[in-house]
Amino acid sequence: AQSVTQLGSHVSVSEGALVLLRCNYSSSVPPYLFWYVQYPNQGLQLLLKYTSAATLVKGINGFEAEFKKSETSFHLTKPSAHMSDAAEYFCAVSPINQAGTALIFGKGTTLSVSS
Amino acid sequence: KAGVTQTPRYLIKTRGQQVTLSCSPISGHRSVSWYQQTPGQGLQFLFEYFSETQRNKGNFPGRFSGRQFSNSRSEMNVSTLELGDSALYLCASSPDRVTEAFFGQGTRLTVV
């Protein structure tokens, strides 16, 4: 069965610092990969997605992620953190050979940004 | 274009009761998925409907059920509520294959 591991349930950075949120997946076939962000009492907002095109994916709000098949990773980065980036981030996968839209989520990483 | 609409936003029910949650997908989207979010278990897939047919199902007991109407609107029902069913229930809509899923604001269910 496919799974997603997000290393670090909580990451703290200073405003202006690099943001790095880690995500590893387990699959024999590279799946579709996604990063979502969730603000308190809100639903999930899609940041970016990998669907077997370019391995470096750019998303909204200055975030990007790089798909590395050899490392089965899809880490999320942002060069300079803003206070407004404080939220919970979820990595998700969807099996590429499965009909339908069943997403498997990681446990999430809470990002705190201090001034 | 209107987003995914979930109603109600908040709900309080008593153990043993049943509850129905509603989701209106983005216009033109035919796939609706449901997820349960809890602090302990995180985000878990419940089921997915496409063109009124259940296409995928997660590992939840039969007390959790759903349906989709011809206009793609979907409802999920939980019968014989348990305290552990307290959660944020999220609905997501997609055009077809999951190239991306758009989520609603969720329904916060509290079982007392």
SSE-based structural type of chain A:
mainly beta
What is the H/E order of chain B? EEEEEEEEEEE
Mean pLDDT across every amino acid position of chain A: 91
Order of helices and strands of chain A: EEEEEEEEEEEE
Principal-axis shape of chain B equals globular
Query: Major beta sheet of chain A, specifics?
Result: 6 strands, mixed
Radius of gyration of chain B: 13 Å
Q: What structural category arises from helix and sheet content of chain B?
A: mainly beta
Major β-sheet of chain B, in short? 7 strands, mixed
**Would you identify the regions of chain B where 5 or more consecutive residues have pLDDT less than 50?**
none
Total beta-strand segments of chain B: 11
Beta content of chain B:
over 45%
| DSSP helical segment count of chain B | 0
The number of helical segments of chain A is 0
Chain pair sharing the greatest interface: A-B, 25 and 28 residues
User: Compute the gyration radius of chain A: what is it?
Assistant: 14 Å
Helix content of chain B: under 10%
Would you mind describing this structure in some detail?
With 115 residues, chain A is mostly beta strands. Chain A has no helices and twelve strands. In chain B, β4 (31-38) and β5 (42-50) form a beta hairpin. Chain B contains no helices and eleven strands. Chain B is globular, with a radius of gyration of 13 Å. Chain B is mostly beta strands. Chains A and B meet through β5, β6, β10 and β11 of A and β4, β5, β9 and β10 of B.
Write the layout of secondary structure elements.
The complex is a heterodimer of chains A (115) and B (112).
Chain A: E1 3-5, E2 10-14, E3 19-21, E4 24-26, E5 32-38, E6 44-50, E7 56-58, E8 64-68, E9 73-78, E10 87-94, E11 104-105, E12 109-114
Parallel strand pairs in A: 2-12
Antiparallel strand pairs in A: 1-4, 3-9, 5-6, 5-10, 7-8, 8-9, 10-11, 10-12
Chain B: E1 5-7, E2 10-13, E3 19-24, E4 31-38, E5 42-50, E6 53-57, E7 64-68, E8 74-78, E9 87-94, E10 102-103, E11 107-111
Parallel strand pairs in B: 2-11
Antiparallel strand pairs in B: 1-3, 3-8, 4-5, 4-9, 5-6, 7-8, 9-10, 9-11
